[in-house]
Design goal:
single chain; about 260 residues; Cytochrome Bc1 Complex, Chain D, domain 2; two-stranded antiparallel ribbon; two-stranded antiparallel sheet; disordered C terminus
């Protein structure tokens, strides 16, 4: 406050005028005289606030800038969007593991997973496959999804001999770069999720071509699930409850005899 009082009594003409006008206004206005009686400090606080507001400008909002891909006369090539500096790598874009990001070993697709596959990875691949792949390839991978059923070009079946023998990196490469009528999914699906889909595709191929030895003695083909209510697109299916005999409870015959 002492510093502000010193400024007001200094030799600045504008501030002397402001102080003089302020005093006359207060003298001629009963309401402002009451304001002054509250304390002289209030006037200085008000003036300090006015000085602070005078410093508010729109320079930060209207600062010079380039619109994306706009022309610039500053650079010889007239492009405002600049290439990264030579020898630099953006954070998170080092990609030392080339195989993880390309699925290739040299010029050819590799045939191994770049990380140890777990059940969680297969579940993740199953989920991503149903979202991004099943509309065309169908959930069983036979190429008869809902999109081809409505006139789009049919993709090949994953269960044909050629694709059953295809390297794992080939599927990753197709998802990354696209193939034929299929666009690339590099921007929609992160690299690890693409590998999870690859693992699920291989499991899907095995499930449709498994032998009795692969199934470990289980019945082939696996019996279709039975539902009490098949459900619709908006409601989930309701599976049949397990049979009483399977739970070790009374059979329907015994229950009927007891009821009689």
């Amino acid at each position: 406050m002492a510093a502000l009082r010193q400024i007001m009594t200094s030799g600045w003409p504008a501030l002397r005028v402001l102080r003089t006008v302020g005093n006359k206004s207060i003298a001629g206005c009963p309401a402002l005289r009451g304001f002054r009686r509250v304390g002289g400090k209030s006037l200085y606080v008000l003036l300090l606030g006015l000085l602070a507001l005078a410093g508010c400008r729109q320079d930060m909002h209207d600062q010079p800038r380039f619109k994306p891909l706009a022309k610039s006369d500053f650079y010889p090539d007239l492009r405002s969007a600049r290439q990264p500096v030579d020898g630099t790598v953006a954070r998170g874009e080092l990609r030392e593991d080339t195989y993880f990001y390309t699925g290739k070993m040299g010029d050819f697709p590799g045939d191994y997973m770049p990380f140890k596959t777990t059940q969680a990875d297969l579940d993740r691949g199953h989920e991503r496959f149903d979202i991004y792949c099943a509309p065309c390839h169908s959930r069983t991978g036979d190429g008869n999804g809902m999109i081809p059923q409505r006139g789009f070009r049919h993709p090949p079946s994953y269960h044909e001999e050629r694709l059953r023998k295809a390297a794992l990196g080939y599927f990753f490469q197709v998802m990354t770069e696209g193939f034929g009528a299929m666009p690339d999914y590099a921007s929609q699906i992160p690299p690890r999720d693409r590998w999870c889909i690859v693992a699920y595709i291989r499991a899907l191929q095995l499930s449709q071509n498994a032998t009795a030895a692969d199934a470990g003695g289980q019945q082939l083909p696996t019996p279709a699930p039975q539902f009490e209510e098949p459900g619709s697109g908006a409601t989930p299916a309701v599976p049949l409850p397990p049979s009483p005999a399977a739970e070790g409870t009374e059979t329907p015959k015994e229950t009927g005899e007891r009821q009689r």
